[in-house]
Amino acid sequence: IMKIGLNEIGPLWFATLRVGLAGLVMFVLLGVKGKLRLPERPEWPVLFSVGVVQIGIFMALIHTAVQYVDAGRSAILVYTTPIWVAPLAYIFLSERMNRIQAIGLMCAVLGVVALFNPLTFIWRFDESLFGNALLIGAAVLWAGVIVHVRGFGWTRPHLSLYPWQLGLATLVLLPLAYT
């Protein structure tokens, strides 16, 4: 579906429409249920982290990358996010891994290396390398947001911030789509 949408309207407009429509639906649904609330000041860091970085910038990166990297490779690379969470959580939250988690992390890294043998990859700066870098960058950014949210804690249900996060993401994507 992404490839079809990308061919018809371009990557950033596709991302903007996806996020904007989802935000509109969430505003309406929560409004109808009487659960739409303004974000409180202590929630602003997570609101901006998720809305701007995890949704807005993440969507811009992956939708742009799909133009240069096939869909299967894109899906695997962008969802390496959990691999990046563990070291970031260690650095920023002082979280330690137990033996099972460390083995799981090593298996995940080895699996990605096996799928994308770096010895057979053509290491020259071209569209393919650019697309792969965007996908890895998106995964690392998403992991950073996960670590930020994990260290933040919540004061109310996550769903209450979601329409606002989607709205912020739309505001990030809209000017990018115009360029």
Description:
The protein is mostly helical and 179 residues long. The protein contains eight helices and no strands. The protein has helices at residues 2-9, 11-32, 44-65, 71-78, 81-93, 99-115, 127-152, 162-178. α1 packs across α2 (11-32), α3 packs antiparallel against α7 and α5 packs across α7 (127-152). The chain is flat, with a radius of gyration of 18 Å. The model has no long low-confidence stretch (mean pLDDT 87).
Straight-line N-to-C gap: 23 Å
Poorly predicted runs of 5 or more residues: none
> SSE string, helix = H, strand = E?
HHHHHHHH
Q: What global shape is seen? A: flat
Structural class of the helices, strands and pairings?
A: mainly alpha
Report mean pLDDT, rounded to a whole number.
87
Helix content: over 70%
Share of residues in strands: under 5%
Largest sheet properties: none
Number of strands: 0
DSSP helical segment count: 8
Rg of Cα set: 18 Å
List the helices and strands and how they pair.
Layout: H1 2-9, H2 11-32, H3 44-65, H4 71-78, H5 81-93, H6 99-115, H7 127-152, H8 162-178
Helix pairs in contact: 1-2, 2-3, 2-8, 3-7, 3-8, 5-7
Structure, briefly:
This protein is an all-alpha fold.
List keywords for this structure.
179 residues; mainly alpha; 8 helices; single chain; flat
